[in-house]
Amino acid sequence: MANEKYESFVSRLQQEYIEDGVDAPPSPKIPESSKVKRKDAIYKSEEFAEFWRKIF
């Protein structure tokens, strides 16, 4: 488990870039929400069922 929040890490890393005289990459953006659509042809296939059995 990380000791540091991601936002703190990014902020510190950005500052290190600036101190080194390098153009810092842009800060990450909060991802937009999107809907997930299951592909039933894959989900209901025997290959997927076998794959799932191997995992658990």
Brief write-up:
With 56 residues, the chain is an all-alpha fold. It has helices at residues 6-19, 40-43, 46-55. The longest helix is centred in the first third of the chain and has 14 residues, at 6-19.
Q: How do the helices and strands line up, and which of them pair or pack?
A:
Blueprint: H1 6-19, H2 40-43, H3 46-55
Classify the helix fraction into a percent range: 40-55%
Cα Rg: 21 Å
Order of helices and strands: HHH
Amount of beta strand: under 5%
Rounded average pLDDT: 87
The N- to C-terminal Cα distance equals 24 Å
Low-confidence stretches: none
Shape: elongated
Helix count equals 3
Structural class: mainly alpha
The major sheet is characterized as: none
Query: How many strand segments?
Result: 0
Any overview of this molecule?
- The protein has 56 residues and is mainly alpha-helical.
- Helices cover 50% and strands 0% of the residues.
- It is built from 3 helices and no strands.
- The mean pLDDT is 87.
Describe this protein with a few key phrases.
3 helices; 56 residues; mainly alpha
